[in-house]
Structures are given as C-alpha cells and as structure tokens.
Design brief:
Radius of gyration of chain A: 19 Å
CATH class of chain B: Mainly Beta
CATH superfamily of chain A: Aromatic compound dioxygenase
Largest sheet of chain B: 5 strands, mixed
Structural class of chain B: mainly beta
Radius of gyration of chain B: 16 Å
CATH architecture of chain A: Sandwich
Oligomer: heterodimer
Largest sheet of chain A: 5 strands, mixed
Number of strands of chain A: 13
Shape of chain B: globular
Shape of chain A: globular
Structural class of chain A: mainly beta
Number of helices of chain B: 3
CATH superfamily of chain B: Aromatic compound dioxygenase
Mean pLDDT of chain A: 95
Largest interface: A-B, 86 and 73 residues
Chain lengths: ~240, ~180
C-alpha cells in the first residue's frame, strides 16, 4: 500500500530527541522507527477543558497544605502560557510537582537520603487567566542525586504540565533556576540541543513579583507551538 | 515575530505527585450502559513492562463530537506492573479533513521516565473493519503497522491494547 504519511526525522525543532545516549533510560524507551506525521483532524485540534469549580482555592499555594510552613526559600513562580505568535492560552490547566528544599520527593520510589518535610507535598495546579497568566507560591526545590552516571545530580527544577487549545500542544517540561552550576553535567537539560531553546527552560529572577519581606519572584513563560502548526513547520 | 518554543522534558519517575490528581482513568462508571474496559501494558525495548509511565487518552463522545458533555480525557499511570486500564464508551466517527469520516479511535499519549517528550499513537476498535479500512490514517499504513493500532477483543468483552515503545512489533507513533 502506498504510504501517504510523511516520516519525520527525530530531533528537529526545539524538543530533545527520543534517543539521547547520555540519558541512559532513553535507550530502551526511544522508538526506533521514524514518527509519521498525523494529518490534523478534530482529534488533534481539540483539547480537554478543566473547569474552575475543580480547582481548590489554595491549589496554587504549595506552602499552605499543612498546619506548619515548609522549610526552605519561599518563592513565587509566575508567568504566561503563550503560543509562539504571542497569543495567550486562556483557562488552561497548569500542573506542577517538585522536590522539597532538601532535594527529596514525597514519593515511594525516592531513596535519596535527605529529609522529608512534613509540611510539604510538592504538588500544585491552577488555571491560566484571561491573559494566559499563572502563579504559584512554593519553596525553592533542592538539587538531588540520581543513578544515571557516577556522581550524577539533577539541577534544581520544577516539573510543569500544561494543556493548550489543541491535543497536539500538550507539553510536559521542567523549569530550572538561573545560574545553576549543574547545567553542564545534566543530560536531561542538555538533551535540548538548541541553546536558545535551552534558555527557555530557565526561569529568571523577577523583582516585580518578588514580595517584599516575604518571597523571591521567578518568572517563567511557557511557549507552545501554534494550535494549527505541524511538525513540518519546524526547521 | 515568533517566540522560541519551550522544549519538552521528561516527566521523570515521580510524575504521580503532580499528575494523578486532576484526572482519573474512568470516563464513565464501570457498568454504565455501553461501558468498555480498555487495558494494556507499556513495554520497553527489552520486552519489560514500564511501571513508571503515564498514559493519557483523548476521544470524542459517542456522537463523534469533542467537547460536549462527555469529558473525553482520562489518565492512568502504570504502577501496576506496567499496566493501565481505562473505562470509557466507544467514540463515534469523527469528521475527517477530506469531508469523510474517521473510524472510531482514541488519541493516546504516553509519558515516562526516559521519554524526553510525549509519544502519541492512536487506538482503533477491532469490530470496525469497514470503517477502519476507510480511515485516512489506518489506510495509509502497511498491515504490519496498522495492526499495532487496533485493540484486541478479550474473552470478557474488554479490549487489550499494548503499547510497545521499541523493537519487535513496535507501536506506530505519530508526530503532531
């Protein structure tokens, strides 16, 4: 049968390739066959909506889940969810999760010998507003060791999951902090080959959103491909 | 002016902290009229189950439309030995850009540690031979390829759909 779905080479555009040898876990999980470009149909151009009623008042504040306050540097992380033409993505669900200030996740699989914080769970979510803005209050996560290679440490990061206006825009990424000395040694950060795209992953200190006497502000905009753009638009 | 896009990064092994709260794996209650169970394993290139993946599905309602009363979006992690299971109803036929119809299908997204970006595939239904043969995506594939996208009917009436990330009978994945 004649093929009329175009094959795309992996690793074009800003996203990392599936196979990135330095990140060992990619070796058995990266597909070996080329991806096929799916025609854009309603299935790809639509996206779930998440109602305001489902979001709790304090879901965006990771420091107020318990009676006590979590340990660590209090921070405000905020920014806009945009499409690449600058158009805001409104009413979109943003979910985050992270380690505590000591670099430990509240998760059964995390064996790092660092303390859990009884006042920190590490998950938050919110909806973007009419200008695509979101904002979280949390604490700065610590770096933590992992098993990828000898003396491997992940730079401090916050995981972000976002929905756009289309299923094709769905994105999960990680936000890093400016000036982290671990960047050159981290194959996950380093899997993004385009330096300009790597910069996109790094938040910037923001005096504007820094709350006087209370919390440091970090700005992190998230830019999605246009809802109707295709992988063939990537150079 | 075009802004630089934010690149994807892996969900890592601790995705459950942030991603299992907002959506569950049931789009309808089990036992609801027309409810079907769809289950399978995520399998890596060594043939081993992947217990730290997250599978997301997006589908039309029974009327073939997106975004009505039917939520259409569900998530299931694979902590149960690499296994996921959804309860849903069969979507209707969705309009195709060429003016025809697509066969009933689910959009399926896979995230995992070791996946630096999402994998996307589609699941089609085994009892839709005619619609499947005319589907614009399936009909553009070789038989060995489209076979990876069609769920198998199991004795108890549920549907089985394994997702093979790499190697033998590797699932066809799409760029979109």
């Amino acid at each position: 049968m004649k093929r009329h779905l175009t094959e795309v080479e992996d690793g074009l555009g800003v996203d990392p390739p599936y196979l990135f040898e330095d990140y060992l876990a990619t070796r058995l999980r990266a597909p070996k066959r080329p991806l096929l470009v799916l025609p854009q149909t309603l299935s790809e151009l639509t996206s779930p909506v998440y109602g305001h009623e489902s979001i709790g008042k304090l879901d965006h504040d990771l420091t107020k889940r318990h009676d006590g306050e979590p340990q660590g540097q209090r921070i405000v992380v905020s920014g806009r969810l945009l499409e690449e033409d600058g158009r805001p993505v409104r009413e979109a669900l943003v979910e985050i999760w992270q380690a505590n200030a000591a670099g430990r996740y509240r998760h059964d699989a995390d064996r790092h010998d660092a303390p859990l914080d009884p006042n920190f769970d590490g998950a938050g979510r919110c909806l973007t507003d009419s200008e695509g803005r979101y904002s979280f209050v949390t604490i700065k996560p610590g770096a933590y060791p992992w098993q990828n290679h000898p003396n491997a440490w992940r730079p401090a990061h916050i995981h972000f999951s976002v929905f756009g206006r289309a299923f094709s825009q769905r994105l999960v990424t990680q936000m890093y902090f400016p000036g982290d000395p671990l960047f050159p040694f981290d194959p996950i950060y380093g899997s993004v080959r385009d330096p300009k795209a790597r910069e996109r992953l790094i938040s910037s200190f923001d005096l504007e959103t820094t709350a006087p006497g209370w919390a440091l502000g970090f700005a992190f905009d998230i830019v999605l491909r246009g809802a109707a753009a295709t992988p063939l638009d990537d150079d | 002016m075009r802004l630089v896009r934010t690149p994807s990064q892996t969900v890592g092994p601790y995705l459950h902290i942030g991603l299992v709260g907002s959506f569950g794996p049931e789009l309808v209650p089990p036992g609801a009229p027309g409810a079907i169970r769809i289950h399978g394993h995520v399998i890596d290139g060594a043939g081993d189950a992947v217990p730290d993946a997250l599978v997301e599905v997006w589908q039309a309602g029974p009327d073939g439309h997106y975004g009505g009363d039917f939520a259409g979006f569900a998530r299931c992690d694979t902590r149960d030995g690499g296994r996921f299971e959804f309860v849903t109803v069969k979507p209707g036929r969705v309009h195709s850009p060429d003016g025809g119809f697509q066969a009933p299908h689910l959009e399926v997204g896979v995230f995992a540690r070791g996946l630096l970006k999402r994998l996307v595939t589609r699941m089609y239904f085994p009892d839709e031979a005619t619609a499947n043969s005319m589907d614009p995506v399936l009909s553009a594939l070789e038989p060995s390829e489209w076979e990876t996208l069609i769920a198998a009917r199991v004795d108890d009436g549920s549907l089985s759909f394994d997702i093979r990330l790499q190697g033998r009978r590797e699932t066809v994945f799409f760029a979109l």
